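All the exercises in this workshop are built on plain-text protein records. A record pairs a protein's sequence with a compact description of its fold. Read left to right, the backbone structure tokens trace the chain's path through space. Once this layout is familiar, the rest of the handout is easier to follow. Here is such a record, shown just as it appears in the course material:
>
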Amino acid sequence: MKNEYPWRLILGIGLVLVGGLALLQSLGLGRLGDWAWTVLFGMGGLAFLMVTLRDRRAWWGLIPGLALLGIGGEIFVSTLPASLERILSGVVFVAFLSASFWLIYLLNPRNWWAIIPGGTLATISLVAALSNLNGGLETGGIFMMGLGITFGLVALLTRQQQYSMRWAWIPAAILFSLGLLIFFAALDLTGYIFGVALIAVGGYLAYQSLKK
């Protein structure tokens, strides 16, 4: 027990420090700049990451660790030029949180469940970035396709394991297809795609008939 990493002590001291500084700032007795908050949240995140680095079985430390780093990253983004801040605002935190679940899977592939929140959060991060970059872009279809790809990865990455999740191909195909339909509908291309698809299917059937 004496050699156990003192994460509770570090977390407790960190919370007291952050809380005290926030209270002083609220009382007008001091002001903590964005850089200082970035460093404080970064240190808190590193403290949790050290838990996992010391014992890979403690994968849970990745979630609060990268979440705190993501919060620090969001604060750092607010110090960047307006053009970059507009694109990255609301993206960094979700991206870091997504990374925590992907790392949980990479540490132990048996934690296949981590692919789902990891992929979903990565999709949300992408959608947020695209929305910030171009507010008029239809992202609903992209979100659905991202979910489809996520379930496809669940099936793909577990195919050679004893716990193969082949069932994931079903929601993958449904979600990706719906995403394509929504995306093309938003671009007013549904009629073209539908027409091309009918021509392709009809041509194939005619070819097979003549081939016989």
